[in-house]
Specification:
The complex is a heterodimer of chains A (172) and B (465). An eight-stranded mixed sheet of chain A has the order 3-4-2-5-6-7-8-10. Chain A has a two-stranded antiparallel ribbon with strand order 1-9. The termini of chain A are far apart. The longest helix of chain A is centred in the N-terminal third of the chain and has 18 residues, at 24-41. In chain A, helix 2 packs across helix 3 (64-73). Chain A is an alpha/beta fold and 172 residues long. The radius of gyration of chain A is 15 Å and the shape is globular. Chain A is built from seven helices and ten strands. Chain A is 37% helix and 25% strand. Chain B has a five-stranded antiparallel sheet with strand order 2-1-5-4-3. A five-stranded mixed sheet of chain B has the order 7-9-10-12-11. Chain B has a two-stranded antiparallel sheet with strand order 6-8. Chain B contains eleven helices and twelve strands. Chain B is 55% helix and 18% strand. In chain B, helix 1 (9-64) runs antiparallel to helix 2 (68-76) and helix 7 (313-327) runs parallel beside helix 8. The chains are: A alpha/beta (172), B alpha+beta (465). The interface between A and B is medium-sized, with 24 and 19 residues.
């Protein structure tokens, strides 16, 4: 509880600097916190994980470390959070969240072929939401925001709460 | 300083009633207004806490994703939802401002540091509400609202107005009721006082108060009536006693006087003759006193009768002056004014008695003076006679009392001048029976006793007592 509180304080402290240009490290801390926060507003329905909550990262990304930190202290509905990293499309196995970092050379379509229903896709590349990821981080006026593709969400069999969607930039 | 004792019972009653009504009404209104205001504040507080709660729930995601604009937009909706809210702020869990709202679009309200257990407070006509945003058992932030209490002022104004109007109406009604009720008490008291005054002025103890009802004033009236009866009874007994006693004394005194006169005529040796004359002089005084007492007794019992005949008033006056001059050799009795030369119908003896009385008073009560003046004058309708002395005079407040029975001025008592205080009483009665008037004018240099006798005298032979 206390740790979680400290975590929130941490991200809010980071948030304070969100008005200014964010350092790479700061940006990924924030992205990691957002990714974790998404779990609170997304309903996985029948795809709710049984043992562990898996967050997969496609490509090498600075988000790995902060996510690992979160995984150490946080859970999803009392289930352990596990971080996995995939460097090739063939490696991709079932994840609850698949984070597609912009730092990879794998074509998006080949990633999509490996994705099963019940996986929330999050990307950080301009125009990816239009291409079919559920959420896509963008920087607007130096602030971290996110686009959302509702159709992608629906086809993944997930439901996002209106509280989340009202903050999102809906692209489709 | 207003003394409550100086206020009349009438005013006291009215004041009491009005004061009581104002107190009761005021307290009732105060209670109603306070409970109304309290109720309004409670309702407002409840609704504003709910509103803050809703805002908080709606802002959780905005705080989670650091979206100030979204939070601001949520607060912006207040303009439509609740125009009473003038300022609103969402604080994060560290107390930093996350989003603000101001009804008129500018400025932020510096909300005081939120205290853990305080959910609302009233600051200068505004309601401040603090609502913590809790998400997954964690405090995510706080919603602060500053609410204008314009309605409260309107409600207050309206209630005060109603209260004022009702208070004034109540005051008026209380005043009217008090005015209507007070005569039952004060009117009767005042009538009692007025009758007492009359009795004290006229000495007519036969007056009674009308007794009605069963309250304290009735008791007072009953006691007063009883007192009057007792006074009347004791007066009656006293008069009877005076009558009987003076009558019983008169017979032996007449006999003593007769023997003394015989002795006086046959005794020529001194000092015996001188003794006899001294005794005779005192017997005469005693006899005069008894005659006065008898006259009073007659006046009281209504037995004094006038023996009307016609005579010239000038002759009577001159004769009386002459005889009085002999009795009072120390004073010179001077007649002033024109002779009236008028024949009148009156009781000569009684008028003489009045003149003697006034002249003897004038000499007796101005022992240091040398002169007594008797004026006569005639008007169209009356003869006026005045007897002036040069004594010490009679103070103004005693002047009206000198014609009362047994009344003696304080100065007389001081100077040990003897007398019963009956002479002027008898004089007044005699003059009034002649339909005349008797009065006094006096200052520090002496007194003048006047009496008037009407010319067209229609004096009845025996006026009732």
């Amino acid at each position: 509880m206390l740790k979680r509180l400290l975590f929130i304080i941490l991200i809010l402290t980071l948030g304070k600097s969100s008005g200014r240009a964010q350092s790479m490290e700061g940006e990924y801390n924030l992205k990691a916190a957002f990714v974790y926060n998404f779990t609170r507003y997304i309903n996985w329905g029948p795809f709710v994980p049984e043992n562990e909550f898996i967050i997969g990262i496609v490509g090498q990304s600075s988000i790995y470390e902060p996510l690992e930190e979160i995984a150490k202290t946080k859970t999803y509905n009392d289930k352990k959070i596990v971080i996995r990293q995939f460097n090739k499309a063939e490696d991709i196995t079932f994840c609850n969240i698949l984070y597609i970092s912009h730092n990879n050379s794998i074509p998006l379509y080949s990633i999509f072929t490996k994705i099963n229903p019940g996986t929330l896709t999050i990307s950080e590349e301009q125009g990816y939401a239009q291409l079919g990821t559920a959420f896509n981080f963008v920087l607007i006026k130096d602030k971290l925001r996110f686009e959302s593709n509702i159709r992608a969400l629906n086809s993944a069999g997930l439901k996002a709460s209106s509280q989340l969607l009202k903050l999102a930039i809906i692209v489709e | 300083m207003l003394n409550i004792r100086d206020i009349s019972i009438k005013s006291k009653l009215v004041l009491m009633q009005v004061f009581t009504s104002v107190m009761v009404l005021g307290l009732c209104f105060a209670a109603f207004i306070i409970s109304d205001i309290k109720g309004y504040k409670e309702r407002k507080t409840d609704s504003m806490i709910s509103l803050a709660n809703v805002i908080g729930l709606n802002s959780i995601s905005a705080i989670d994703f650091l979206d100030n604009d979204a939070a601001k937009a949520i607060l912006g909706d207040l303009r439509k939802i609740s125009p009473d809210v003038v300022h609103a702020t969402i604080l994060d869990n560290k107390g930093n401002i996350f989003a603000t709202y101001s009804k008129n679009g500018t400025g932020t309200y510096p909300f005081p540091r939120v205290q853990a257990n305080k959910k609302f407070e009233f600051v200068r006509n505004h309601l401040l509400v603090y609502n913590t945003i809790i998400n997954d058992n964690e405090i995510t932030g706080t919603v602060c609202l500053r609410v204008e209490l314009t309605e409260l002022n309107a409600i207050k104004k309206q209630k005060y107005q109603i209260a004022y109007i009702l208070l004034i109406v109540g005051l008026g009604v209380a005043f009217l009721i008090a005015l209507a009720i007070q005569p039952y008490i004060s009117k009767r008291l005042l009538s009692l006082v007025s009758i007492m005054n009359q009795v004290s002025k006229t000495g007519d103890y036969s007056k009674h108060v009308v007794v009605e009802g069963k309250d304290e004033i009735t008791a007072l009236s009953l006691v007063f009536n009883n007192l009057m009866d007792q006074i009347q009874e004791s007066h009656k007994k006293k008069d009877e006693f005076i009558g009987i006693a003076s009558h019983e004394l008169k017979t032996p005194l007449t006999s003593i006087k007769a023997y003394l006169q015989v002795l006086d005529s046959i005794e020529n040796n001194q000092p015996n003759k001188q003794y006899i004359e001294k005794a005779l002089e005192n017997v005469n005084k005693l006899q005069q006193l008894l005659l006065d007492l008898l006259d009073v007794s007659k006046i009281q019992s209504g037995q004094l009768q006038l023996n009307i005949n016609e005579f010239n008033i000038d002759t009577l006056i001159d004769e009386t002056i002459a005889s009085s001059q002999i009795v009072s050799p120390n004073h010179q009795i001077v007649r002033e004014g024109k002779p009236v030369n008028q024949v009148i119908s009156a009781d000569k003896q009684r008028i003489e008695q009045v003149l003697i009385n006034l002249l003897s008073n004038a000499t007796k009560y101005s022992p240091g003076a040398k002169k007594v003046i008797l004026y006569t004058a005639k008007t169209v309708s009356a003869i006026i006679v005045g007897v002036k002395d040069f004594g010490i005079g009679i103070p103004k407040k005693e002047q009206s009392k000198v014609f009362e029975r047994f009344y003696r001025t304080k100065e007389l008592s001081k100077h040990h001048i003897s007398g019963f205080g009956l002479g002027l009483y008898i004089c007044r009665d005699i003059i009034e029976r002649h339909k005349g008037k008797i009065w006094i004018e006096s200052d520090g240099k002496g007194s003048v006793f006047y009496f008037s006798l009407p010319l067209q005298s229609s004096v009845a032979a025996a006026p009732s007592a």
